[in-house]
Design a protein that fits this description.
Elements lengths: L3 E10 L8 E11 L4 E5 L6 H9 L6 E6 L2 E2 L7 E5 L10 H5 L1 H5 L3 H4 L4 H14 L15 H13 L5 E5 L7 H18 L2 E5 L3 H7 L2 E5 L6 E6 L14 H18 L1
Parallel strand pairs: 3-8, 3-9, 6-7, 7-8
Antiparallel strand pairs: 1-2, 1-4, 4-5, 9-10
Helix pairs in contact: 8-9
The chain binds adenosine-5'-triphosphate.
Length: 262
């Protein structure tokens, strides 16, 4: 059995005001192996974020099944860490304390928080340093740039050592240079820690740079219309993005999405 299995799933959002609701995904099947880095791309509104919510237990299928780590998903998946386009840091807490938030929620850390606070704080500072944010734990999030906040948000997604990391457009709001820097941060974190990763993105270069496999979804209701292996060797330097093999894959994906939008 794969680490994440989504099997023939449909999800219709509840109707409002007599309408019939929105069928977000239908016949959606995909599986992700342990340690794999996959990306999900597709036309706007095709159900990418819905897929993320299904895999983390924030939404449940109308039909079909979802399992993670061999267990059916019946509620929020505690072995998952998440990062989104908007880092949403609590402005009254230091950056370090924002990073520590999942440990205050997820067991067994929650019950150990008081006794192990100093150790957890040191862990947060070490994680921040590993993404180039040495000393930033002592600052408030509003004292950091957007790129720094997004790095901190990655740390928050990883602090409880999740086996599954879900990234929903995490670099979408950043300028091109900062975005590429964070691709490298993410590449290195994945290589070190080997968590299973699902990245939802509109940025096809980002998908090809980071992923082992890319799932292309149809227009809504979303289902997988193509699985593209990215057979570029790792570790991948940024320069790979200028190579023909890389740009060929990007063009292929662009063509598939253009077709799917029609
Ligand atoms: N909570 C909700 N209630 C009702 N409809 C919803 C809800 N969440 C999403 N939808 C609808 O489901 C469809 C799929 O939404 P989803 O956010 O999964 O798509 P997406 O591919 O992530 O979108 P985008 O490319 O714009 O980020 C859309 O038509 C959206 O309006």
């Amino acid at each position: 059995m794969s680490f994440v299995e989504i099997a023939d799933v449909a999800l219709r959002y509840a109707p409002q005001g007599g309408a019939e609701g929105t069928l977000a995904v239908d016949g959606l099947s995909l599986s992700v192996e342990k340690g794999e880095f996959v990306a999900v791309v597709g036309p706007s509104g095709c159900g990418k974020s819905t897929l993320m919510k299904l895999a983390t237990g924030l939404n449940f299928p109308t039909r079909g099944s979802v399992s993670v780590a061999g267990r059916p998903v019946k509620g929020p998946v505690s072995i998952a860490g998440m990062a989104f386009q908007n880092p949403v840091m609590l402005p009254w807490r230091l950056t370090r304390d924002n990073v520590l938030l999942p440990l205050e929620v997820v067991q067994p850390h929650r019950r150990q928080m008081r006794a192990r606070k100093a150790e957890y704080q040191a862990k947060a500072d070490a994680l921040l340093a590993s993404v180039g944010l040495e000393g930033a734990g002592e600052k408030y999030p509003w004292q950091l740039s957007g790129g720094m906040q997004q790095r901190a948000s990655l740390c928050r997604a990883l602090i409880h050592e999740p086996e599954l990391v879900m990234l929903d457009e995490p670099f979408g709001a950043l300028d091109a240079f900062t975005r590429e820097e964070l691709w490298c941060v993410m590449r290195d974190l994945h290589a070190q820690k080997n968590f299973t990763t699902i990245l939802v993105t509109h940025d096809l270069r980002e998908a090809v740079f980071l992923a082992d496999r890319i799932f292309v979804l149809s227009a809504r209701p979303g289902r997988v219309i193509k699985v593209r292996d990215v057979d570029l060797p790792r570790p991948r330097p940024l320069e790979v993005t200028y190579e023909k093999q890389f740009t060929d894959i990007v063009h292929e994906l662009r063509g598939l999405i253009a077709e799917a939008r029609q």
